[in-house]
Amino acid sequence: MTDAANTSLPRHPATAFGGGAVIGALGGLIGLGGAEFRLPILIGFFNFAALEAVILNKAMSLVVVATALPFRAGTVPFDVIADNWPIVLNLLAGSLIGAWFGAGWATRLRSETLYKVIAIMLVAIAIVLMVGHDATAGQPLLTGVAQTIAGVVAGFVIGIVAALLGVAGGELLIPTLVLLFGADIKLAGSLSLAVSLPTMLVGFTRYSRDQSFSVIGRNKAFLLIMAAGSIVGTFIGGLLLGIVPNAILLPALAIILLISAVKVWRH
Q1: pTM score, whole prediction
Q2: Which of 146, 164, 192, 266 is 20 to 30 Å from 157 by CA-CA measure?
């Protein structure tokens, strides 16, 4: 798919870096990479087609998540993550399959349909942001075989969402880890990254088979600069964490997602 109209829009390094930094800061404030906010910007402001925006978002999410995992090692060491490998494998059993199917569906959907699917998922994430982000660790919701089955199903759904939106899926993974497995919120953040990386790689591999994947080659500099901005923004957002109370922050971010969903739906 060619997009001659896209090349006429401002995609200067400063714009890409600044946009990535603002999005990363939003994500950093709530402990995410900001990909949920980046996707509507790629579509609405930089005017990428839906599938191209998803693929670029996926590539940037990979860079941000790969960087975030070692950043968090001081708080949650790698050996602690390794001690929880059964949880990671449980979710991966579903998320890897979901990511493959989700990316396959995205490449086959008409652009108009994909815009609407993205809009609906942004609304769903806004709802999860409001009701699930403040969950605190406690007793696992389920145990034994029931927990394992629920983990695979949850992973499958999260893998689909992550592939269709080009996100890491942390907004869904973290509440799942806290509620279903009773993980501490800090541990859940790192386990989420451990699940996200291979899940995103599977989706990315599936997208590489589609002709729209060439958008990465045509926009390499834009991708790297915006990803760098996202990393800087995420770091800054993390430093600002706690300054803005969640009672104000979460509804504001949810409203941003809802407004973005309306704009994407009408795109």
Answers
A1: 0.85
A2: 266
